[in-house]
Amino acid sequence: MIRNLKMIIEYDGTDFYGWQYQPGKRTVQGEIEEAIEETTGQPTRIIGAGRTDQGVHALAQVANFKTESKILPEKLRKALNSLTGEDICIKEVSEVPLEFHARFSAKSKIYQYRIMTQYSPLKRRTHWLVEYKLNIERMKKVIPDLVGEHDFKNVSVSDEASTPTNEISPADSENAHKNTICRIDDLSLTTDGFDIIISIEANRFLRKMVRGLVGFLVDVGRGRYYPEDLMQIFSGGQKAIYFAPPQGLCLMEIRY
Predict the structure, then answer these.
(1) Which residues contact 201 (CB under 8 A, 6 or more apart)?
(2) β-strand 3-11 against 88-96: which pairing, if any?
(3) What's the pTM?
């Protein structure tokens, strides 16, 4: 009997070439698939809710796979954790309906980006060091104009903006390359001592979109751009967008 198993996964992305399987390179997907095959004896392709880039982390990535194995979920979880590196943890394995799809069933995703304004060696793998003096209030002024539905192609990777990190549904996949419109449901910027924390929830994300938005917000904070420049960026009038580095980005939650 075919079963559909859902996994919740935490990982430190520093030493991976991203989530997605790449021959000859260490990826999160590839390492978990090897562990599943060794445990069940069946080659398996897992489906991730989002394809995090090289160096990006996850607190609660979601993936699913179908299997004929009869191994109980908790036993499987322990077996997989014994076969993967210390920078991956399978936090939960559960059986879900066959129609569940980690990517297409998702309603929204929440990412968090962390910036440190004073260097800490303990945070170097999870924060971006920004030594410019940042005007936090000016950065916050941009947020209301980012929330809602917009075309974000100019704050994503231009040559790959046509390949979104998650299509909305299988029915949309034929036209997904034309769709660069996303809906940001919530965006917040808070401070914690010398740290700045930016949280974004959206129905979908283009490749490097969060890093593009963070880069723009930092440029606003240091005076390279002003809040009113956002409309020119949406329209393509401003193209020199700086992308924040990957290590500050973490996939926090997938909502279904």
Answers:
(1) 108, 109, 110, 111, 184, 185, 186, 187, 255
(2) antiparallel
(3) 0.89
Q: Does the annotation count 53 as an active-site position?
A: yes
Residue 223's region, left for phi above 0, alpha for psi from -120 to 50, else beta, is left
With both helix axes pointing from N to C terminus, report the angle between 73-83 and 28-40 in degrees, rounded to the nearest 10.
Answer: 120
171 CB-near residues (< 8 Å, 6+ apart): none
3-state helix, strand and coil shares in percent for the chain, rounded to the nearest 5: 30, 30, 40
pLDDT tens string 216-242: 999 999 999 988 888 888 887 666 788
Alpha helices per DSSP H over 150-208? none
Instruction: Tell me if residue 129 falls in helix, strand or coil.
Output: strand
Q: Which of 53, 192, 219, 229 is catalytic?
A: 53
pLDDT for 173-184, tens place per residue? 434 446 899 999
Supply φ then ψ for residue 110, to 5 degrees: -120, 125
Sign of the dihedral through C-alpha 215, 216, 221, 225: positive
Asked if 77 and 32 count as a contact pair (C-beta separation under 8 A), the reply is no
